[in-house]
Every structure is written in structure tokens, then in C-alpha cells.
Amino acid sequence: MTALLEIKGLHAEIAGGRKIIQGLDLTVNKGEIHAIMGPNGAGKSTLSYVLAGKPGYEITAGEVYLNGEDLLAMEADERAAKGVFLAFQYPLEIPGVATLTFLRAAFNAQRKARGEEELSSPDLIKRVREIAKTLNIDADMLKRPLNVGFSGGEKKRNETLQMALLQPSLCVLDETDSGLDIDALKVVANGVNALRSAERGMIVITHYQRLLDYIVPDIVHVFAAGRIVRTGGADLARELEATGYAQYQSEAA
Amino acid sequence: MGVAIRKTKAELGLADLYQGARRYLPGGEEITAVRAAAFDRFNAVGLPHRRVEAWRYTDLRTQMKEAKRLASLPDDAAKTKAREARDLFAGAGFRKLMVVDGAFVPELSDLADLEPGLAIQPMSDALAADKPLLSQRLGPVVPDDDPALALNTALAANGVVILVAPGTALSRPIHVAFVTTNWVATSMFTRSLVNIGAGASATVVESHQGPDGSEYQVNTAMQLVVGDEARIDHIKVVGEGNGALHIGSLLANIGARATFNQLGFVAGGSLIRNQLFVRLAGEGTVADIRGGALLSGTQHADTTLAIEHAAENGQSRETFKAVVGDTARAVFQGKITVAPGAQKTDAKMMSRALLLSDEAEADSKPELEIFADDVQCGHGTTTGAIDDELLFYLMARGIPPADAKALLIQAFIGEIIEGAANESVRDALTGAMLGWLGQRE
Fold it and tell me: What is the pTM of this model?
């Protein structure tokens, strides 16, 4: 069976030279939730950007396959259409673009790229509203410019809404818990858990174990100095909470 | 000084136009004298060039190679073309008035069932009757040292006069469509007057369009006289053909406790100079002045604003945005003057340019001249390319780069369009914007 995501010997650096990812191997199968934990500066966010196709990173070695297709050969929009979704740590504010306009553009662009019929506006709005309700997002927020003036919690709920609407096959959640109070965290986690399925894989990137109490991973990796230094089950997260990352930082260095 | 500067071909041509036309340009003794004085002012300085501060970025002396002959009165073929010309505001239900090749054409204009308090007439009639419409009404607003406006005063033959009686609230917007029909390049000088009486309100849209591939020349001026407690929403759309020279002057004198909403939108033409001379003459007036420009190819669009707060408690917001592609160039010059005694003035000016290519250029020159001591005035300018982070965010959601850029451009210019109170105007401008974006793809 082809893995959903297969990363082999990946090395990446920021354009200009600093090495960030240094020999990463990771396989995510459909239905699995992987947590990637590690100290700040380990390269966790870079990994999420490299997977999503953000310009400004140079892949110096390695391969990444999504359902057997060469992910690194694709532009960011093509990756999204193939099912990659990055939930941003800091979702961007776009004044002048209504949230609903953005959702419609994204949804129909992906459909078009896959050769599927675009969804009519009323049908799309209906679908968006249904999802919004489960995330406590009111209709007014959908009319507001994308993320402009949204609280931290509203931004993360909006990311979750996009994820639920776009139904990606690979979700990469970058520090989804940052900036969230416990109530907002629960709402977002419920939204994410509702997307758990045998057809979908997730990578949950986090510094803290707290998020993993709500989104329980199948596999936990410790990521330090640009590669995975330890892999375990969900209980590894709790162990890390107790011991911290100091030992891995010295190991990696 | 005293050194005679050699006249350019265009300057000599303009002198010929005036000498040839002055005998039959409409106007009695008084108007004729006003024209002669204006021509002399022009002739003394010639076409403006880069050493003239107000024209620093738009060297008309170099860029205007010759003066085109004056357009002749529209014949039946021209009228048919004008009637069939694309209309951004079609279906909006506006009262449409047509100025074809510089001449007001009553039979193409909707003059039926004029609302009580509304009067419309051709400017040529008003001039022929020697009504002092060319400059006197505006007093200090009219800059007598602007050569382009002086040329307009000397040569304006026609246009529209719209008079709204005091207390009249016109609910139906008026659309004055200036259409150039002839692809053989000619020049047109039009002057219009909109007079909004005290306590009255109106929306007046002017649009300017013509054929692509013709180097026709438009010099148009609009005088707005707005009474106390009146409201005017004035929208100007420059959608000229791609070879056109368009020089537009807005002369606005606004009374006390009035509302002045002005929106300029450039999505056409080759060389465009839009100059706005605004005087908030009475106290407590609120002005919202916006401008948007969508430029590509080798277009050059210059917006030059001079606004004077002449009385106290006035508020003004000036917001100008330009999207500049290819080797196009956007110019914004904005000067806010606060007169002595215009205390509690609150004025904020902002100009932003979004550059779509490395060769695109934007110049911005904001100025404040403040003679009162209890005011709040400020200005800001930004110039930048499309934000890569925003672009990535949109692409990461599956939106292809061209569509993502278009969405960001729409968002950028949307702030200007949202300034229009009338929904049909917003729709029309959005349509113009989408048309422009569509051509780029």
C-alpha cells in the first residue's frame, strides 16, 4: 500500500544558507495522526512550510511523496488541490477580501484543479454555514475581511473551518494551540477530531503536550535540530512534558 | 529672465487652435474677454514641464507632441456610435446626459421628466448668453496659474450645466457620459458646471471614453459649486482609449456643513492628468476624496490634489491608491492647506501604490501647509509589491497564483470603490476593475 506521505532523507535550508532540516525521514499512513514535538527552533514550522510549498526554502536533498506523487515538484496551489492543508500558526489578515469570498475562491479553485464541477454559491454558503455552526463561528464573521480584527481563537477556528470545508487528505497543523485559551482549544480540537478518518492523515506540530490531550495522536516524534530523534506512542508526549527537551537538544548538538 | 523660450510644435498648434476658433467660440463680450485673458496666461508660460512644481512628474511640454485639430460637431454616424458605446452604468437607471466629441447632444440625453428643482442645459448656451460660468463663480478656487486649466477656459466650447435648486434632494443619479467617437485624433475642450443649492443633494457621475488606437486629446473641466448643508457625491471614471491624452480639472467650492464625496477612477487612457482643486469654504464641512488607478503598459497617470480648509471644524479624508503594472507610472501629489482661522480642522491624507512589476513606478508627494494652530493633519505614503506571505496563504488554499494576485489587487483597490455610496456605482467600478484584471491575464 502506498503511504499517504513519505519523506525520505530530507534536507532543507532557508534560501541564503542556514540549514534547518537535516535528514528527515517520516512516513504517514492514511488514518494516522502523528504529533511532532520539539523545542523552539528545531525546524518544526519550516517542515510545515516545506510540505505546503512556501517559497524561500531550498531543498538540498531528499524526496517527499504524497500518495506516490512527487510533492516537491508542485507549486503550493497544486499541493493544496492534491489534498495538502497547512493550518497556519499565524493565519494572515487580508483586508478587503471577505472570508466567504476567500472560502469560495479556494473551494472552487481546488475543484477546478481536480477537474470537478464548481459548487454554486448558495450550495457553498449552506455548506460553510453548517460547518461554521459546529465551530461557534457566527455568520457575521464570514462577511468580515479575512482574519482582520479576529481574535487568536477566531483565527484558529477559521483555519479549522477551512480545513473542514476543503476536506484535505493530509492536514498539517502548525502550533494550532498557540494563542488559544482552554475553551477555544476544545472547540478547535473537536473540529479537528471530527475530521479524523481512515482516509486522512494528520501531522500535529506542537511545542506543548496540552494540545495532545485533546487531539490524541497515534504516534509521537521528537524533532530536534532538524530531524526526528525519537519516536513513541501517545505516552511519549506526557513524558516530554515532565522531562522537557533539554536532553534532545544536547543529543542533537 | 527675459529669454524667449522657443515654442514647441504643440504650443504653436494650440495657439493656432485658439486663433482659429475664438471668433466662433460661444460667448458674449464678457466671456470673450475671459477667454482672451486665459489664453494670454497660457501663452505666457506655455505647456507645463518638470520645472513647474505642480507638474513636476508630468512633463506635458515633452509628452504632448502636437495639438490635434478641434473635433467637429458630431454627425449622425458619430451619434450612432456614441449611443452604442459601452456604458459602465447601463441598467443602473441613472439620468444619462451625453457629450459626444465635446458637444452636449440633447437628443441623446435623457431630459424627460426633470425632477422639480433640476435644470439642465448645454454649456454652449450658457456661454453664448454670457453667463459668467467660466470662472467667476468659484473665486479663489480657480488657480489662475495653471496652464492646462487656462487652455480649457480659453477653448471650452461646450459641456453640461446642471443646476439643482436649494432644498432639492435628487434621488436619481445623473450620469454625464463624455464619448469620443472618431478614431482620427482630434482635441476636445469641455467645461461643465454642477451647482447644488443650499440643502440640496445629488449624485453626479462623469465617465470619459473613446476608441483605442487613437491619440485624441481631452481637456475637460468640471466646476462644482455646493451650497451650505448640501451634499454632492461626484464620481469620475476615466476609461479613455489606450492612446488618449486626458487632462481633467475639478474645481470644487463647498459651503458650510456640507458633505462632499468625490471618487476618481482611472482605468484607461495613455497620459492622464487629473487635477483637483477643492476649497472647503464654509465651516463644519466633511469631505471624502478618493482616487483609484489601474495602470498597465506604458500608461502615465498623475493625480494632483490641492485642498484648502478655509473655515473651521472641517474634516477631510484623502485616500488614493494605484495599481501599477508593466512600465506604467502613477503620480500622486496632494497638498492640504489649512487657512488661518480654520481651527479644529481634521485632515488625513494617504496614498498607496501597489507595484506589479520591477519597472513600474509610483511617485508620491504629499504636502501640508498649515496656518492655524489647533488642527489635526497627517499624511502617509506607501509603495510596495504584492505581499509574498499573503500570496502564499492564498496559494496554500489552492488558489492559483494569477487568481491570488487578482484577489489581492481587488482587495487593495476595493477600499476606494467602497467609498461610493451608490451601489450601482460600486458595481460599475467593480466591473471596470474586473475587466482590467481580465485583460491582464
Answer: 0.90
